[in-house]
Amino acid sequence: MDRKEPKLPSYVRETTQPRAHRRLSRGLRFVLAITLSLVALQYLRLYSAVLSSSESVHVPLRAAEWLDKCQLLDAQPGPPTDFNTRTHSDRFVPGTKAALITNATIWTGGDNGLEVVKGDILLDGGLIKRVGIVDDSVLERYTDLARIDAQGHWVSPGIIDMHSHLGVDSIPELRGGDDGNSFKGPIVPWMRALDALNTHDDAYKLSISGGLTTALVLPGSANAIGGQAILIKLRPTADRAPTGMLLENPYEQNRSVYDPHGHFRYRQMKHACGENPDRIYHNTRMDTAWAFREAYEHARKIKDTQDNFCAKATKGDWAGLGDYPEDLQWEALVDVLRGRVKVQTHCYETVDLDDLVRISNEFKFPIAAFHHAHETYLVPDTLKAAYVHPPAIALFATQARYKREAYRGSEFAPRVLADHGLQVVMKSDHPVLNSRYLVYETQQAHYYGLPHNLALAAVTTTPAKVMGQDHRIGYVKEGYDADLVLWDSHPLALGATPQQVWIDGIAQLAAPHLLSKPAAFQKVPHTPNFDKEVKETLKYDGLPPLEPTQAKSSTVVFTNVTSVFLREEYSVREAFSADASGSLSAGVVVVRGGQLACFGSASSPCASSVRAEENAEFVDLEGGSIAPGLVSTGAPLGLQEIDQEPSTQDGYVLDPLTESVPEIVGGSGALIRAADGLQFSTRDALLAYRAGVTTGIVAPQTRGFLAGLNTAFSTGAHHKLEKGALVQEVGAVHVAIHPVGSPSVSTQIAALRHLLLGETRGDVKEWFGRIRKGEVPLVVEASSADIIASVLALKAEVESKLGTALKFTIIGGSEAHLLAKELGAANVGVILSPARPFPNYWEERRILAGPPLTEKSAVALLIENNVTVGLGIREIWDARNARFDLAWAALEADGALSKADALALASGNLEKLLGVTADSLQGDMVVTRGGDLLEFSKVVAVISPRMGVVNFV
């Protein structure tokens, strides 16, 4: 049977066990008790640690990444520590031949731009390896070396444009390539020019041919903060992609601007103030200033949050920190506050300059440069008050007054700023100015007083410094990028043209066409003294009086004259030239009552005739000259003061092809006269007068087809009723034919056919009747060779039907060279406007670039085909530079144009082509000191037979 043993109490069981067993159990219990105590203690410690860890030492999974970022918060951009020991450029193309430039005059950029070295330059691996005399022992290791004999000509660093829109505002201008601005708001620091860079911009090749090797490509100025600019070399790499054009890539890692070794690259940021962002976003200056402050306050908060986060994270204090605070949209602006971004600011007026200086101090970030900056020369102390350092100033040479904030712009600004110890940069704003001719900007700055060393630095070393790239570009030094230009003359000589350009040690001009320049062009040009003008400019806060001063005596004697050029109806001839000895006392010119009385050598009867005249006023020209007054056309000079201010201009005519012209005006028979809308004493007209342009010929402004009747006027007159103010009230009829979509080009040609052959009324009937009789010219504004061809065909058609030879003139003419033979045969003249072609629009894309890209220029080719050629302008500020356009055309003709022929391009030729009759020719003479009108001389007076006076300017 199953029986269950009763369960006894434990103490009864224990006492009933054997004695030995009882002793063993007691020892085991003691050991177990100690062990359990230790385990319990350790458990309590671990539990406490776990509790503590869960509250403050929970290390995030991304902690290492964030700590890396924290370590770099204060890191500053700059080259890697081993940059100066590099053996080849990061842009080097394997297989590129080493090159040796010998017998060069080298402007290195060193010693504040004063260092000039005679000798050689060795290029290898995309770098400059040697400068000076290169020993044969160095060359022994080169078995295949390209050798270039510079023949004593100048070599400079590659030209740097610190303000360009190459690739984002591409040419030819098309809607599909307009990527310069974002219109998503006034503050967009997250935008990047790299994301819009067009590698097929037609301007790259042209700009390289002018010596340009590097450009800072900026977003446009529609936004207060427009985004991040990029610094590119104009030579594309093998991948043909935008990224490959970057000088240094600041975007090497996603959401980062540093490489694995902690080497930051400087970024560049576009800011803008004043009229542009105000106009686009309908703001006032107060709105824009607040937009800046609001944006920087947002960035400052992010920066402070990052700093606070890292202060704790680096101590291991992760409690409550969360994720590393960053915002992809704002990280670039945060980096501005950390000193990693060069701020490039479009800013003109004193009020805007002062605003940005205060904002820079409020948020503690430096401004790299103010661009355009037309009033900076008036407020140097304001610039010096900017945070950390004064901004550099990036300027045009003479382009100004195109809007209100540019109205006080001065050609003397570079000199004045340099006198105050401020950094001066000359820039293009391409395609506003063709960056192919950036060196021309610095030539003008030098002409108006910027020292030669600083003028060359203004397009080389200075922009390299301002952009934080002077460790590799801007100098001819060992270890620097092999970006060089071999010039045919001194880079500051007018018309200086590259014979070869190297980028990364690679020659860029396959078969350059070289020009022969006089030996004098190998020297730094002598420039006039403008001390008086600078003083007056500052005295009058940028708006000095420009009106000429009449001679005190009716008899003025000019001495030390080296040449005299005279008009013979529409042509120009050299009537007097100093002897070969170059004696400064060789010539004397006597003027009585505003009329050229006589001229001759110092021993001539002419000189003797005035010795007894006590009241004669004598003027020493120091080797100067007298030449016909120049003519300006192509821009609305005399019809406007400020291009972007409608209240300061005559305005635009109604076009009967697209609009209804009121009967009170004359309906479709109306023909508007420019003379009725003339404005006198405009600043651009007076500046032109002071530069030797004494006559303006202007047609009414049109945005359509029919413009109206031109007029010729004196640029130095005070008002229309003044004696000599109107040279000729009406001269020629102007029309314009361009591809605008609607109406079509064919419609415009049809309209012109109707005007020439059909029934018309009013003024149109009268003046087109005179055109049909061959009495007055028809001036057709056209650029496309196809349109010009249609105009030539129409001329032949009308002449065949009427049996009369018609006078036609083409103005614009960018592609006219393609029809040079046909134009010559048809006796149709061409006014090239601008004087040096640029394919800004599709209808202008087939330009003849001229040396070094083509053997001939458009001027030379047209003249060679018996075409009467004149030179015009497109913007009124450029009228003052007509003399330099003529000199440049003569240089590019490589001896085919005499000085007299060159002067005719903007005097007799223009008057003939634009309908100024022989009895109305203005007859003004321009007097220059220190050279002739085609040199870097100074215009000192205008002889005006029409007014009967000599005006000093």
TrEMBL record:
Location of the Amidohydrolase-related domain: 155-504
Domain of life: Eukaryota
Single Gene Ontology MF annotation: hydrolase activity, acting on carbon-nitrogen (but not peptide) bonds
InterPro entries reported for this sequence: Amidohydro-rel, Metal-dep_hydrolase_composite, Metal_Hydrolase, Metallo-dep_Hydrolase
Pfam families in UniProt: Amidohydro_1 (PF01979)
Protein name: Amidohydrolase-related domain-containing protein
Gene source species: Ganoderma sinense ZZ0214-1
Source species taxonomy: Eukaryota, Fungi, Dikarya, Basidiomycota, Agaricomycotina
